[in-house]
Amino acid sequence: MAEQEHNGVNGFHSESEQRNQPVNGDASEAVNGNPSNGLRVTIEESASSAVNGGSPTNSMLTPIRQRMERKKSSPMMPTFMVSAPGKVIVFGEHAVVHGKAAIAAAISLRSYLLVNTLSKSKRTVTLKFPDIDFNHSWNIDELPWKIFQQPGKKKYYYSLVTEIDQELVDAVQPFLADVSIDKPADIRKVHQNSAGSFLYMFLSLGSQSFPGCQYTLRSTIPIGAGLGSSATIAVCLSAALLLQLRTLSGPHPDQPPEEARLQIERINRWAFVYEMFIHGNPSGVDNTVSTQGKAVVFQRTDYNQPPSVRPLWDFPKLPLLLVDTRTAKSTAHEVAKVATLKKKHPQLVGTILTAIDQVTQSSAQLIEEQGFNTEDEESLSKVGEMMTINHGLLVSLGVSHPRLERVRELVDHEGIGWTKLTGAGGGGCSITLLRPGVPREKLDKLEQRLDEEGYSKFETTLGSDGVGVLWPAVLKNGMDEDEEGGMEIDLEKFLSADSNEALEKLVGVHGDRGEREGWKFWRVENRD
Ligand SMILES: Nc1ncnc2c1ncn2[C@@H]1O[C@H](COP(=O)(O)OP(=O)(O)O)[C@@H](O)[C@H]1O
Ligand SMILES: C[C@@](O)(CCOP(=O)(O)O)CC(=O)O
């Protein structure tokens, strides 16, 4: 499978990819509760048939609790949100597609998905992706449920799906025919690919009795820049669907780490399905780090098994400069290029991939060493040298780009630090590890030069939280709050945030003083 051409299931890729319901009654209680609590009300009252049958969570409900909740009148699920972080691959991109290890860390740039459940009579499911000017609705009752429910085809929320089923892809095709019909071909392909990935996951997980709903996505992550934007959408949609199906427990603060890990694993499995549809042959590192957050050493040696994921809990606060070349790239195209090169020169390319693996392993060791200190030149220069070597190996695989080489040239010339591309390459972003003690003027000069040459720079921290849930979509954000101190995020407000800053201010998981009350995360740390 790792050798497969990498063109997305539909071949729907172009190289120039462009880059409430009011909460019914008990909002204040649910803000401090957990999604499963909120969901119980809904499912008991109106959407019982929407649930995909006997999950452990269902059976965990006590009869007394059910009776008590039945008294409340809450006919629909509240509007809720999920959010997932982008990532940088610090070491090992591309090699990771061929079974080698990679180190990736979640960043503070995130995607946010608002989920509105519609009233019972509205039988449509809508995707609204305003960042890419995509909006489409389907009639739920017209979707090809039968094919997805066939014995042997039917998948469950706990299934491990390791490949996309061509018969199911074919069943989805007719529902993509009228997607963005008025848009230019390359944009239309991107929209059809998003729509196809969503429908594949929706039909696999759901059933015809699924309630009508709207999924609206906004993101602060540059699209197609190597920061894992597609994986964040995969994670958000997977988490949203699994929450709607009441198959997840929590997140809640006192949840045991093993239980939290299981929920993360389930979200990640379905996010991977979305990624497989969109990219053809992803390693799974992007969706894994986006779901789990923090930083991980990731490796998938056998595509029929879950990957090995080793968290790096104390990932150092590396002083990084993240530069976007603002040159569009296609992950699918870059991955396919490496696969073709490997087919042509198996031994040589095999040696390069093994060398990248050694760089990744050595770097993980360095970072985890007791004495590793981000302010110490010796510690940093060792990691920096690894980055330089990793970049050189990626260049030899043919996945760099003149705009990426230009960043390296500018940084190297001034002795500012060590640079490598991050993500698929062919454009996208680079990361520079800054040498300690570089004078501010030198940095300013570099930033000015990059600005003049059309690059953009991102300030982000590594090691952010993974997938988060805001249930219901009410939070304290210091803006227009009601007497209970919360603001209900409805579609209009969500769509009207007109910049990344405004979006972060409105719904961001982090306020000025750290985590914002309302957002909850599955805490998987267990350091014992
Ligand atoms: N904000 C967004 N809204 C809708 N779709 C998005 C958004 N960001 C990314 N995508 C989807 O992800 C694709 C880019 O994924 P990919 O090529 O893997 O780039 P990246 O390196 O950012 O992950 C886009 O073509 C689009 O389908
Ligand atoms: C090149 C690769 O290793 C990373 C791609 O990252 P991105 O799509 O550019 O964010 C592919 C993969 O791991 O699936």
UniProtKB/TrEMBL annotation:
Protein name: Mevalonate kinase
Location of the protein in the cell: Cytoplasm
Main location: cytoplasm
Pathway the protein takes part in: Isoprenoid biosynthesis; isopentenyl diphosphate biosynthesis via mevalonate pathway; isopentenyl diphosphate from (R)-mevalonate: step 1/3
Free-text function comment from the UniProt entry: Mevalonate kinase; part of the second module of ergosterol biosynthesis pathway that includes the middle steps of the pathway. The second module is carried out in the vacuole and involves the formation of farnesyl diphosphate, which is also an important intermediate in the biosynthesis of ubiquinone, dolichol, heme and prenylated proteins.
Domain of life, source organism: Eukaryota
Biological processes, Gene Ontology terms: ergosterol biosynthetic process; isopentenyl diphosphate biosynthetic process, mevalonate pathway
Organism phylogeny: Eukaryota, Fungi, Dikarya, Ascomycota, Pezizomycotina
PROSITE patterns noted in UniProt: GHMP_KINASES_ATP
Record region (Disordered): 1-39
